[in-house]
């Protein structure tokens, strides 16, 4: 796979995730948020399983116990992120959810510093401040307008950062991105159904009412999209991957306005722009700096 093909695959992933915000919101008209997570990832597990088995047959050596534990840890992070995002959609808009979730592009290097002890580029810190200002404007320019759903979605962005670090660590170490996908989906399915069974009502009519959303999210947003991400990131740089994946926020906003009837004021558009610039700056400025340093060294 060429780098161009990989980036286009990541762009497709962003579009699928953006559209997935719509199904996540509409599914909760009949089904509880945690039941939706459990059922969508159950579908995703069956989607990923044949690919994971084919990958296992091609592998030169079996996965280690540490690999499997890493896969499970990734699944726990994914479930926590999906749960906070899904519950957050009860009290926030699709557009807000899409952009606030995209803050993982800023949170990831910060978390890398704290956990992995790898110092990020200096641009991360002003970018974090820019993102904070963007959130303020997106909330309507007043802290009272920042809903519980928005706060949960910000927590979700942090948890997505944890999940991305886990994927980068364990998929690379094991060389089994599809096995990682299948295991993390299965963890989410089991936890989602178990938790939902204790706190949310369920009925056959509710499942039938949300079945199109369950199938779309399970097959596309959860199944194919995550697998595409894990595979494509092996053929492109991390900054390019983050930029293309962050397009999910743009697609979520577009679909939110066109399909859900969401509206964004002038301050909200400014906030969206600032958040997106922060995302781009976090990834692009280090690349420009390194390119300049290489040119100076070559001269």
UniProtKB/TrEMBL annotation:
Record key words, sorted: Cell membrane, Membrane, Transmembrane, Transmembrane helix
Membrane topology: Multi-pass membrane protein
Pfam families reported in the protein's UniProt record: EamA (PF00892)
Major subcellular site: membrane
Gene Ontology CC entries for this record: plasma membrane
Domain EamA: 6-139, 148-280
Membrane-spanning intervals of the chain: 37-54, 66-85, 97-116, 123-145, 151-171, 178-199, 211-229, 241-260, 266-285
Cellular compartments annotated: Cell membrane
Domain of life: Bacteria
Coiled coil: none
PANTHER family found in the cross-reference section: EAMA DOMAIN-CONTAINING PROTEIN, OS03G0707200 PROTEIN-RELATED
Protein name: Drug/metabolite transporter (DMT)-like permease
Species classification: Bacteria, Pseudomonadati, Pseudomonadota, Alphaproteobacteria, Hyphomicrobiales
